Amino acid sequence: MNPNDSTPLSQTLRWSAMTHRGKVRLNNEDSFLALTFDAQEIRYLGKEGESNFTVGDFVFAVGDGMGGANAGEFASRIAVEKITKLLPKGFRNSTLGLNAGYPDLFQELYHEIHKALTHLGQNYSECSGMGSTLSLCCFSPSWLHFAHIGDSRIYYFPVEGGMKQLTADDSHVGWLFRQNKINEREARQHPLKNSIQKALGAGHQFVDPQVGTVSYQTGDRFLICSDGLIDGLWDSHLLAFIQNPSPEEAILPTARRLVEAALDKSGQDNITAVWIEVLEA
Which end of the chain is more exposed for a tag (fewer CB within 10 A), N or C? Predict the structure, then answer.
């Protein structure tokens, strides 16, 4: 089914979100964001909910912070909160059908976050090394606009089946995996698996986020997650977990199921998942 075959406003989004510090870390450096907005107002959403596009567009994001003391926790929070300052401009573009405006908007947004984190890292010793990944999804009727930097991930589960990772991990290990030079097991065991080449702040000089747009249809699903989730759930396990939940698992919010499963299998890092489903109103 083509997304243009039905009235976009007849579609509904259902979401769930959960974050956990894991079994090892003393604090949680992950942050997530869920909100809806129009040209005048931004409204924060709860961890679970369902709504349609009559209230505006929707934004969901995950940031994974880094830095000494509590700087990582602070960095990821800054990253997701700054989103609220610029996105109403994007809504005005989408109402005019200017989908091409989102890449420029995302570039501006990521540069502003990078500048803020860099300033804090350079001027306050307790913020030295402060940085964050940021994977962001903006849903307008029939279209998902996304931006990404770091090694958090955005996955797409089309209604026809299968799974696709929309984002590319900004790491040498991620590049080796995409070039088929190593397999998933080797990537997970690689000594540099936690070393990323791009992030907001963290001493990086340049910011060049990956941006893209995907048309979606009723029945499609999306996952935004930190690398702590993937540490516990391999891609093959993730797809099977989504497609074939047990009756006991199926009654729980999907984000909670994913986080609890990753916690059970690993839990060495903070774990965050935001799950979005496209439904018929």
Answer: N
pLDDT tops 60 at residue 38:
yes
What is the three-class DSSP state of 148?
Answer: strand
Question: Phi-psi bin for 151: left (phi > 0), alpha (psi -120 to 50), beta?
Answer: alpha
pLDDT class of 194 with cuts at 50, 70, 90: confident
First-to-last C-alpha distance (Å) of the chain: 16
Residue 74 half-sphere exposure toward CB, CA atoms < 13 A: 18
Query: Does residue 48 belong to any structural domain of this protein?
Result: yes
- Please state the pTM of the whole predicted model: 0.91
Tokens of 124: 């306050």
Asked if residue 249 belongs to a domain, the reply is yes
Q: In what order do the strands lie in the sheet with 11-20?
A: 48-52, 11-20, 271-280, 221-225, 153-157, 164-165
Torsion 89-92-94-98 (CA) sign = negative
